[in-house]
């Protein structure tokens, strides 16, 4: 059995919470120290980054990474949650479903790049210490300040070459790929897209295909995780600690520097042009992650901020 320290990419199924996935992973691995690096709504599927053992201490370094999704935006009516789980909300009906490709592109273009989004009431964002969805479930609505996000890509996916699918019930489905900054609400993007087309809209399906450098092609199901455990092949799917920090610069430590870092003592570095305050992976000669350091550009030293030895 390998050490229970690393990263698992789980393909979250629909109908369960991210917390449910964490709880089941704990039961499968019999490991208490398990967390995730960013939730998915219960109806959504796809990449959920699970941190195991010492990796739980690295969650702070994954909180701001970009994400990518495949979404189905249903045109025809809005819902009070912004997705298919909510109740229909009265709004503009679809008077015309003959949207041209140019109209669709124009609507998407206005939602690319840096935009402001108002967080939905049915979200985990906190206002005055209370989660918005808790207030929404009590029938309360509070003022929310728009937040800046960045939509790197918003483009049509055409299954079978079809831009818009007529569901023959007054609704129409539009498939899209979305690449965006952390903190983006794809539900809000769907609603705003509908507004550009003068029709109510909500998110019918959502699948997360990427979190930072972690792709859906790396993901396994919970059932597959159970099989790997039984076959003693966890090593084939459990990524090393450093995989969670692939975008950070790194420094190879000497044996003496490893000892210093393990005790939380600074390491002198020269010949690097890292930004002041930048985080750096501190690794031993065998590429094992020892600590995450913070660079002091004036003193030319790395201060170990998260030491993994013995944690």
Question: What descriptive keywords fit this protein?
Answer:
single chain, 311 residues, alpha+beta, Pseudouridine synthase, Archaeosine Trna-guanine Transglycosylase, Chain: A, domain 4, 3 domains, 6 helices, 19 strands, 32% strand
Mind explaining what this structure looks like?
The chain has helices at 18-29, 101-109, 132-137, 186-196, 222-230, 255-262; strands at residues 6-12, 34-36, 45-52, 67-75, 78-79, 88-89, 113-117, 126-127, 130-131, 147-157, 165-166, 172-180, 201-211, 214-215, 250-252, 267-268, 279-283, 289-296, 301-307. It is an alpha+beta fold. It folds into 3 domains: 6-65 and 213-243, Pseudouridine synthase; 67-211, Pseudouridine synthase, CATH 3.30.2350.10; 248-307, PUA domain (Archaeosine Trna-guanine Transglycosylase, Chain: A, domain 4), CATH 2.30.130.10. The strands form 4 sheets. Strands 1, 2, 3, 4, 7, 10, 11, 12, 13 and 14 form a 10-stranded mixed β-sheet that branches. The longest helix is centred in the N-terminal third of the chain and has 12 residues, at 18-29. The model has no long low-confidence stretch (mean pLDDT 91).
Task: Describe what is shown at a glance.
With 311 residues, this protein is α+β, with helices and mostly antiparallel strands.
Q: Major beta sheet, specifics?
A: 10 strands, mixed
Shape: globular
Total domain units: 3
Instruction: Give the number of helices.
Output: 6
The helix content is 10-25%
Overall pLDDT metric = 91
SS elements, strand count: 19
Q: Spans of 5+ residues with little confidence (pLDDT < 50)?
A: none
CATH superfamily of the largest domain: Pseudouridine synthase
Q: In percent terms, what proportion of residues is strand?
A: 25-35%
CATH-defined topology of the largest domain: Pseudouridine synthase
Question: What gyration radius follows from the Cα positions, in whole Å?
Answer: 23 Å
CATH architecture of the largest domain: 2-Layer Sandwich
Which CATH C-level class of the largest domain is it?
Answer: Alpha Beta
Secondary-structure element series: EHEEEEEHEEEHEEEHEEHEHEEEE
Structural class: alpha+beta
First-last Cα distance:
19 Å
